[in-house]
Amino acid sequence: MTETDAYDHVTDDIAALIEDTELSRRLKERVYETIEEKADEHGGITTEQAADIITGVENRYLETRIEPLDPVGTVSAQSIGEPGTQMTMNTFHYAGVAEIDVTQGLPRLIELVDARKTPDTPMMTVHLEGEYATDREKAHEVVWSIESTRILALGDVSTNVADMLVRIDLNDETLLERWPTHSDPTEVAGIISETIEDALGVDTRQAGTVIEFGPNQPSYRELLQLVEQLRDVVFKGIEEVERVVIRKEQLEDGEEFVLYTEGSAFGDVLSIEGVDDTRTTCNNIHEIYRNLGVEAAREAIIDETMNTLEEQGLDDVNIRHLMLVADIMTNNGEIESIGRHGISGSKDSVLARAAFEVTVNHLLDAAVHGEYDELDGVIENVIAGKPVSIGTGDVDLRMGSRASGSGPADD
Amino acid sequence: MVNVTDHELVPDHELLDDPEAVEEVLAEYNVSKTDLPRIKRTDPALPDEAEPGDVVKIVRESRTTDQAIVYRLVIS
Predict the structure, then answer these.
(1) What residues does the RNA polymerase subunit H/Rpb5 C-terminal domain cover (chain B) (predicted)?
(2) CB-CB under 8 Å, A323 with B7
């Protein structure tokens, strides 16, 4: 009982009462603190008053515990499903953080529980470390190594049909801005022309910041095709990331720059210099799974579903329901969707699967393979018209002719 | 190389290399090893020395209490 020494008003009697409860360590600590605080406010506390507080807390705690045979899954499904009916059905795009469109509402929730391989609107929140987070120039360096730079951002492209040539006039300022480590635009133009040679398989001629090249065989069609291909070549940054928005955000101690990206490539971004690889996240749970593992994916599912509900003003959904969903989705060591192709489709019972979706297929397959149903689940017994194995339905009472042992049972 | 265990989404993964410790856990919850949630051998957050059949102890920063301890069985 060393910890009671820290509190002036907690007597040994009160401490004994607290320690005697079924509360968890953390709740016990909070009861100690509350009693101490109240006693300070009112100049003392009697053992009776303390006992009232303690039993009050314990009763609430016991009330909120799940009872054996409680159908937690069904309760969770209802608790998420009902607010789901109030969510907006068709705000597919809505200006989210920093002018980036993010899918929200019901479509996003469905996307999450379906565990889609790629979200409708992938995005990343990139945090920066050290001076990259505080210095705007440095932060921009990171922006240029993430945002994909294509030829149209760097200069003008024109086609000379008479000489069968594509001519690129690069803009000196843009080159130096996007390649901050170089001081000579011609040098950068050299890098660009090399990239073009590699990507398109043509020979280029470079003079200053002007690059010219033509098709290997003079052909009007090839020339046009080259221009088309040229537009898709990524000269700097990550191909998947179309746009990066930089934003200054308030912290408890000062400010920092945070990048929001349209498109995501989580693994690539984590290894870029200046990126804080402990806080950067993305909204694609599969990318989180691949790079950080199942446990991180579980956290991400909880965060994403909770945020989706909160943004719709439905934040009174208890987080435990979402934690249960995330637990089930990651139970197997990888992300499984809720639904026909995931959890519901992998149930052991034929009848349970048939009751969900595509009834006939499941029954037919089961008949072909000679499957056997134990009838021990909920759905099977509803179908069979027998008591289900949850709640009072799973309790059997047995009355014997002999008196059971001496004294009352434990509970 | 990025150290994934430093990421704030990744809780601590600790290998239970003492068979007795594993038995204790299984006895506490009255389950067998295969009833535990799983984690892939290839999971990036897993300690390098973990082999299929091992049990890892995961200490999460819980949303409903301070810390939540869960166990996962390593599978191939």
Answers:
(1) 2-74
(2) no
